[in-house]
Structure formats: C-alpha cells, structure tokens
Design brief:
110 residues, mainly beta, SH3 type barrels, 5-stranded antiparallel β-sheet, 1 helix, 5 strands, elongated
Length: 110
C-alpha cells in the first residue's frame, strides 16, 4: 500500500483497481457465459469469489439439442467454475432487456 501523496491527491489508478472497477460495473447486468461442454448460461451477474468463479442469479441454462435446436431450462442461482469458462459476453449498454425468443440471438452482446 502506498502512503498518501503530500499534495493530498489520490495516487493514480493501478491496473488492479481499474480491473476491479470494470468488474464492478458488470454487477446486476445480464451476462452470457459459454462453458467447455457447450452449455450456455444466461443470467444476472451477482459476483465472483477469490478464484474468480462466476456467480449468476436468475439463470437459464441452454444446451444444443437434436437438430441444432436450443433447449433451455431455468436453473436459478449458479456458480460457474472459472476453469470451465470459454467465453463471457455482456449485454451492450444501449439495450434494455432480452431479445425475443431464447435471448441468445442478435447483436445485443459485446
């Protein structure tokens, strides 16, 4: 930890603090997370733990069914191990809600 500067101004943000601020900006935002076995979780970002496992609330889980149809089910609150995550997508800021259908189509995720 750095001592306060003599002028009274705060020290410049470090990479760690800017990453933490960015992560905090995603709290309570919809995330779409893909995992190694092909499942997709669509839910509200509730936080992480120390090893960066991802906690989602009000989550739906999607699997590719026969004939490339998405099959979804409500799973509620889930903790996804970071080692299984292949992709994390956040909803674009200008969008206000899920798209029609499964919520997995369209350019609403970054």
């Amino acid at each position: 930890m750095q001592p306060p500067s003599p002028s009274g101004s705060s020290p410049p943000p470090t990479l760690e603090t800017s990453a933490l601020q960015r992560l905090q900006s995603y709290l309570r935002q919809p995330l779409r997370i893909s995992v190694t076995d092909g499942r997709i979780f669509l839910g509200t970002f509730a936080g992480t733990d120390k090893p960066l496992n991802i906690l989602l609330a009000n989550t739906e889980e999607y699997r590719m069914g026969s004939g490339e149809m998405l099959e979804g089910r409500y799973v509620g609150q889930v903790l996804i191990p970071w080692r299984l995550v292949t992709k994390v997508e956040a909803q674009a800021q200008q969008d206000y809600g899920y798209a029609s259908g499964s919520g997995l189509e369209g350019p609403m995720y970054l």
